[in-house]
């Protein structure tokens, strides 16, 4: 262990000293010198021990100085490496669309990226102000770009920023492009390798036409007339980009009674009212829930900073009920298939896509409608890849348990703008029948069986945290549990060893344990955060057994925490 630390320290010091020779800002040189002179060298190691790698969401990391941090230089390396790959792939007349969110330095990083692209004879279309990630995906396709980038760290804490890369189909990059881009990035040895000789003629501001075109596409997704709707809606953008389009999408769907949570309305990189801006975190929803109660509204919508994730809370008999990602996905999928069947637009070649950690309930729903349901690796980019690779099949909808949903294929990433409009339409449809989303969900459970699902994460920061995560995965891989939820383990799937196929095209560090009674535990390191994730999915024919299932999950969580939280 000590030898490992010494080796990392040596590498980190060497890299930091190299950066001091670069033509970087004097304040940044000062920061590096402070790190080099600190007695505790853990921060130095964490900042410089390696280069940021593309994960499920592109490059993402803490803002700061160093190769393992997001800063103007690592953004520069990423953009130059991407430029080099684009020139290899497309030769001439290359164009890129650029968007950015409300985080610290997002606009600066986006502007710098446009400058570097132009210096490499690549045309940039850049939004004049912050825009949601799914609209960037749409813009790539609409503007016939070869590529797109968005500066965002999605739902991560305020200390983070990131760099998502999209391919010409509007989906996030996948293999082999991701590996080839990072290969080009790693070839760059000096900040002087980054071209910054700006060509203003190759930088164009994206017009409002893209906004209008995007919203018109969303409007066409409506399957009901909502103009006489009495649905009362509260919306919070959690200080992010959703404010630019969610109210517009609700308006074109016919919803007029919308309250915006004032304390969270304005984009703010400090996210002052939330511990971190993630609609999966109930603490982040407290301001919106307060408005939901005070205005006696029916539904609360909450989007993360780049507006690709949607959280929903409903008010029922003066009680607030939070719907999780699997429940929302089931509601959206069931409603979409039901209405398409009624309208006779559900064709034999239709399909739905979900990730391997998303509820099996989706597959049951699809079976009834005679619609294929494909399960991909975790990350919506794999759903986008599937859409691209199946041009002769019709994509209906896709979902992942982490609050990500998509209907139709004019966007190729999870889209909280689309989802907000559709979930309100479903809520309105229910309200017209004197029901609500929870009633609708119970109808689904009664029809297909009850699923109790929960996500538990253990956060483990830094180099030591990475080693702990690796150790936990190794422990589960080498000593798999014989019993889970008081039920015998009957099947183990190791996606690191699985045979690839037309859907699962690459191996992945994911373990799945399935029991005799079809309960499931899935374990994987996060691709975007220093966390290991435990996904629990328990099945019962009777929803009345929810409490029993909940206790079984809590028991497993306690055992995991006691054994692994301090590994």
Folded structure, characterized:
The protein is built from 17 helices and 21 strands. It is α/β, with parallel strands linked by helices and 567 residues long. The strands form four sheets. The protein has a six-stranded mixed sheet with strand order 1-5-4-2-3-6, sandwiched between helices. α4 packs parallel to α5 and α11 (325-342) crosses α14. The protein starts with a helix and ends with a helix. The protein folds into four domains: 1-49, no CATH class; 54-206, Alpha-D-Glucose-1,6-Bisphosphate, Chain A, domain 3, CATH 3.40.120; 216-448, 3-Layer(aba) Sandwich (Alpha-D-Glucose-1,6-Bisphosphate, Chain A, domain 3); 450-564, Alpha-D-phosphohexomutase, C-terminal domain (TATA-Binding Protein), CATH 3.30.310. The mean pLDDT is 94. Helix content is 39%, strand content 21%.
